[in-house]
Amino acid sequence: MADLSEGEEEGKLTGGSQQLVVDDDLREMGKKAAWSVSSYKPGNAVLSLRDDNLDTYWQSDGAQPHLVNVQFQKKVKLQLVLLYVDFKLDESYTPGKLSIRAGDGFHNLKEIKSVELVKPAGWVHISLSGNDPRETFVNTFMLQIAVLSNHLNGRDTHIRQIKVYGPRPNPIPLQPFQFTSTEFITYSAVR
User: Fold this and answer.
1) Number of neighbours of residue 62 by Cβ within 10 angstroms
2) Which residues on neighbouring strands pair with residue 164, listed in sequence order?
3) What angle do CA 123, 90, 159 make, to 5 degrees?
4) How do beta strands 161-167 and 80-86 pair?
5) pTM of the model
6) Given a cut of 70, is residue 54 above it in pLDDT?
7) Which residues, 6 or more positions from 176, have their beta carbon under 8 angstroms from its beta carbon?
8) Alpha carbon of 13 to those of 116, 140, 182, 189: distances in Å?
9) 164 has a pLDDT exceeding 80
10) In angstroms, rounded to a whole number, what is the distance separating the alpha carbons of residues 143 and 36?
């Protein structure tokens, strides 16, 4: 998996990756969610965030913060958010400062990550892991991505794609390891 980005400081991400590269032990969870946005220009709605086309984009239409809401029917484990943004194409429409929030619903969202993007161009990886090494994911019903500001003091924002990833479930319940060979699976002890 590519690191968060080419140059990363505490809360600052620069660069981006032109190729979408994610660890095999993660799966895309966005297809299980209901997606909504705070506003959009006609022709640039929420569907543009999920169409796998880097030439389309969601464009907000209103006052900041601009919000993307990702709601799940049941609690899910999320580990990584990927955004495709491109300063070269979108200039002042490019997000500059993001807040990633999680909770049970709109009523109790809490910020779990604050990120500043510095002229990003490509897939930007935002890990949802906490400071504690045991906190590798967020267990939540809802994720909200808030665009707090744009580059060059822009008003509206462009985001070309968003993907959310969580850990793959273990295929054998109550088995601490994922065995891959048939022989190991046959002779493994299940508690």
Assistant:
1) 14
2) 81
3) 50
4) antiparallel
5) 0.82
6) yes
7) none
8) 6, 24, 43, 45
9) yes
10) 11
